[in-house]
Amino acid sequence: MAVPEKPAPVAAAEAAAMSESGAQTLTVSVGPQHSGSGHMRLIIELDGDIIVNVAPDPGYVHRGIEKICEVRNIIKSIPVIERPAIIDSSNLNHAYIKAIEELQGVEPPPRGKYLRSLLNEMNRIMSHLYWLSIYGVFVGHTTMFMWPLGDRELFIDLAEKLTGARITHSYIVPGGVRRDLPQGFAEEAVKRTLYFEKRLDEYEKIFFNNPLFSSRAKGVGVLSRREAVALGCTGPTLRGSGVDADLRKDEPYAAYPELDFDVPTRKEGDSFSRSIVRMDEMRESCKLIRQILKQIPAGPIRRRAPIVVPRGEAYSRVESARGECSFYMVGEGGDKPYRVRYITGSYRNMAAIPVLLKGGHMADMPTAWWSVDYWPVEADR
Amino acid sequence: MSGSPSREDMLIQKIREQFPGLVKEARVVRRSRPEIVVAPEKIVEVALFLRDQLGFDHANGVSGVDYNREARFEVVYHTSSLENKETRDLVLAVKENLPRNTPKAVSLVPVWPGVENFERETFEMFGITFDGHPRLEKLFLTDNWDGPPPLRKEVRFPTD
After folding, report:
1. Which residue of B lies nearest to A251 if distances are taken between CA atoms?
2. A176-196 confidence digits (pLDDT tens)
3. Which terminus, N or C, of chain B has the lesser number of Cβ atoms within 10 Å?
4. Is residue A286 within 8 Å of A125, Cβ to Cβ?
5. How many independent structural domains does chain B possess?
6. Where are the domains of chain A?
7. Which residue of A has its CA nearest to B116?
8. CA A16 → CA A10, A13, A40, A361, B102, distances in Å?
9. CATH architecture of A65-341
10. How far apart are CA B44 and CA B51, in angstroms?
């Protein structure tokens, strides 16, 4: 297997350099201003308006969460774990709790598992909608900025009813979840998902099938299947390059083994295919929410779990909105873990950014970059 | 436990057969989670075998762990395969132990290019150097950070 070429280091101070062809190049710093998703910088070397080299420069929102987890009681770490991607908090929360439960040997009751999957799917939609609205900003489509943020409230309200919090729910705890379904939740949720599916059709008409967007996204920022795999890409970025990998299918957890859903993929590997994969995922999530509410078994929502990290090692992972979120946890018997390794989808997909931008036009950079849904805060942790 | 060897056991056996004596320890932590401990100087050979012969086509992450009481660092490469649908749940942990006073490892970027950022982070957070890494510089830490590698255990958290 060929190893993709690595971008050469670009010194920030270097205002002008020579490209391989001998032409004079210009180094442009994109960021670290908040570009819609958190602070990060891309150092881009340009030859005319062609991108010769890209070096991502993350770390502006690094919180040292792995260190914080080492000195805190496992329960107190839950809100911190959620912070890197508050729009997708329950998926990150789920991966963390799964690692603890693996070490404890605790398994949540069936109803607890269904409730976890329910909130996970709601978060997936909320996260994709946020991504889509920022994409609208990036490509200058004001309607697509407004609509998804408005429709996101449908699910934020539901999440608030279920968990008590709009975005950072801290809902999943060792042994199960914090609260049961409120009265009338199922009817309201079904109604909202059906309405939202109609809205998705409108999104397609006004944005995805609109040449204003599609002609700017098709064939732009291409990431081949081989590159995506070798670079360790994950989530919609990987599925947009034709790999049907989804942990909900490949390593089923929570209620997913009992649920019926498809894994949308596209083989083109360009910005458009990555975008449309997320669009299709939102439709699947709507179906999943209705299925969960129909099939949810009765019974307890939480099992007793000790507030202890037993001695041993665990590696847990879930499919978050941006791909695999994994925790490698080493326990030594106390109420704090010895080591927590926290790897998110954005962190892994960062490796793809230079590859898919290189050789493209500077004018295509926002479209190609944001199609990865790189969330700086989630990458920095 | 069933009588026939599990796929995790068979995987470990295959690696052991290929590298007799090189795999220092191997165990199955739980279902789909086998791990092997290899000598740091031979990790590239093992990784190439895993990639080219067993289909471990990408790395899920690289983690450093500071076992200061045992005067060693452990570097863990979690790797898995997308090639074969049936084994996608399998995550193999390839571990190496490095002495704490001279933490030098060999980079696996030529094998799995996706580990570049992870190795950079392990370098800045633990002070472990990776020989052959194309760009061993700070990743998340600020450029003017001159303190010790912050994830080492001797670096105390302010409230701890």
Report:
1. B89
2. 999 999 999 999 999 999 999
3. N
4. yes
5. 1
6. 65-341
7. A351
8. 10, 9, 22, 18, 39
9. Orthogonal Bundle (1.10)
10. 10
Q: What is the CATH number of the domain that holds B72?
A: 3.30.460.80
Burial of B3 (0-12, 13-18, 19+ CB in 10 A): exposed
Tell whether A313 is within 8 A of chain B (Cβ): yes
- Look up residue A259 and give its two tokens: 């649920």
CB of B151 within 8 Å of a chain A CB? The answer is yes
* Closest CA in chain A for residue B27: A313
Residues A28-38: b if buried by 16+ CB within 10 A, e if exposed = eebbbeebbbb
* Dihedral in degrees, nearest 10, Cα atoms A88, A92, A93, A97: 160
A 10 A CB-CB count for B9 gives 14
> Does B140 touch chain A if contact means CB atoms closer than 8 Å?
yes
B116 located within any domain: no
DSSP string, A234-294: -THHHHTTT----HHHHS--TTGGG--------SS-SHHHHHHHHHHHHHHHHHHHHHHHH
- Nearest-CB residue to A380 (from B60, B66, B140): B140
**pLDDT one-digit tens code per residue, A336-358:** 999 999 999 999 999 999 999 99
B44/A contact by beta carbon, under 8 A:
no
Quick: pLDDT tens for A76-95: 999 999 988 888 999 999 99
Q: CA angle at residue A91 from A88 to A96, to 5 degrees?
A: 125
Q: Where are the beta strands (DSSP E) in A111-199?
A: 172-173, 176-177
Q: Please name the member of A338, A343, A380 whose beta carbon is closest to the beta carbon of B61.
A: A343
